[in-house]
TrEMBL record, chain A:
This protein's encoding gene: mrpB
UniProt keyword terms in alphabetical order: Cell membrane, Membrane, Transmembrane, Transmembrane helix
Location in or out of the cell: Cell membrane
Stated name of the protein: Na(+)/H(+) antiporter subunit B
Residue ranges annotated for the Na+/H+ antiporter MnhB subunit-related protein domain, each copy included: 8-128
TM spans (from-to): 7-27, 33-53, 74-98, 118-136
Automatic annotation (TrEMBL), chain B:
Protein name: Na(+)/H(+) antiporter subunit D
Pfam families: Proton_antipo_M
Protein encoded by which gene: mrpD
Record has Membrane as a keyword: yes
Tree of life domain: Bacteria
First-listed, main subcellular location of the protein, grouped into a coarse class: membrane
GO molecular function, one term: NADH dehydrogenase (ubiquinone) activity
Segments passing through the bilayer: 6-25, 32-51, 77-100, 107-125, 131-150, 162-181, 208-227, 239-257, 269-292, 299-317, 323-347, 368-391, 403-422, 456-478
Amino acid sequence: MNQSSIVLGTAVRLMLPVLLVYSLFLLQRGHHAPGGGFVGGLVAAAAFSLVALSDGPGRARRILRVQPLRLMGLGLLVAAGSGVVGLIWGDAFLQGIWPKWAYLPVIGKIGTPFTFDVGVFMVVLGFALEVFFTLLEDE
Amino acid sequence: MDTLLVLPILIPLATAALTLIAARALRIQRALSFAGMASLLITGVVILLHVDEHGIAVAQAGGWAAPYGITLVADRLSALLVTAAGVVGLATTVFTGFSLDRRRERASFYPLLNVLLMGVCGSFLTGDLFNLYVCFEVMLMASFVLLTLGGTRAQLEGGLKYLILNLVSSAIFLTAGGLLYRAVGTLNMADIAEQVAAYPDTGLMDTLAMLFLVAFGLKAAMFPFFFWLPASYHTPPPVVSAVFAGLLSKVGVYALLRTFTMMFTGHLAFTHTVLAVLACATMIAGVLGAVAQMEIRRILSFQIVSSIGFLILGLALMSKIALAGAVFYLLHNIVVKTNLFFLAGVIEKLRGHGDLRRLGGLWRERPVLSVLFLVSALSLAGIPPLSGFWAKLVLLRAGLEGEWYWAIGIAVVVALLTLYSMTKIWALAFWKDAPPNEFAFTGRERDVREKSARRAMLPVVALTVVTVAIGFLAGPIFEMALATAEQLLDPSQYVTAVLGGVS
């Protein structure tokens, strides 16, 4: 990697938490309003990609902690698992289940459509970063 | 019942996810993939037994009722094909572990294979036209990466042709789906079947039928859209060719079977005549290509095209016995074609290439391999009592009963030429003496290759046993094919099962 610019590095350090929180916000409001796991995942991927651009993909991988491919696998499992919940406790595969007790202060109601979106979030994040990191490391 | 129908999609998905998580550990990936494919096969058999006993099974994903939600349907045809997909998937997983180079095997081979199987099973089970499109795309993505995995020049060239032609097909499929939705206001196949039958403008429906014919014909490698298949299927490692040959183009045929037995049946004189003409052209084009080639996997690729022609001919004749013949031929061909590509892979493993001009002496050196090849080759060519013979016999009889004499004449000539192209492989690779200046592996390299070729014989033997079994159990299997054809010819069963009599 060539020497990164100070402006980019400083901006990224400030932007990283903002972007990540924003991506979670998008994920959460996705059920009834524009947003959701897909865009949320992309915004989160953008945050890590910025780090990779300024400090190199190695640093971005360290911050992410999980391997992108593994994140994809986990995301697929979470999404598929949300579908199975409907199969076991509901009537059909992928049926939305909203348990009464599942309520968190800021996030609101939690049901299988939400966990499905979390899975999508992880898959998109993992996929985008796997592609981006590979391209950067190829240079 | 819901659980049962979701499993063929859920199992490969979960396996793909788990193998992605275990990206570092090859042994665990192999074990996971093996377990996944084995459970897929078992699920297929269970669905088949269930459908056989209780009739068409339906599941509504998300719990939304039929024309609005996404429906999964398993009739006999779907159940049979899911089972066949399980067989191919299982054999492929075993063959991969023994034959593929480590670099490719590590590069997400197992996740991709499982995603591919998910797309294939999804296509067989879905009762929704748009969902079928999605499954096609899932398959296309996985297959494109599998095709170019390793990134050699030939692979990229073949992959490009494959990708472009399949994207064109997807675009046409999507257009046709959109137009159909505009006309009849539904994407549920059972609902479409009812609406199309009652639609006043038959001209529009004929046009749409032709659009679907082109879209699925491209996927199935039907004349005049077949050229991408022989241009790409011989480029990837043999195991990838095998799973493509066994399953991918068959999905296109399945889509044609579904569309033209259920949705567009109002104007048989037009649609099915077009199908018959194209089927004959496909057979001729495929077999002439096979006769002209000098490399094992290229010959086999062209033979895929000609067998697609046979299958579509069965659909075009549209009688109970013809459809039964097509179903039988489909099952036989999935197993035999996969196995022949495995065998080509073993030969390439031993000799480093599959060029008939430079091969020879395999009969003397490897009698077991030769006999296994002979069984599959003769079965494909249609020599009794092997499975291919019964399949072709039934189709010919159906043609005679329907008085399609010209089509039957062409089919007989094509069958003879198929036999010729198989004997060409036999004579040049097995019987002929090894050419004097033949390149041979020596020392350690040879030992490694010998060992891996010996192990790779395991799935080959298994599939050969299945082939022989199909031949000797032709009676019961044909009974099943007849029952399948009956279901296909009576779409009202399917419609009632999905829509529950309310429309």
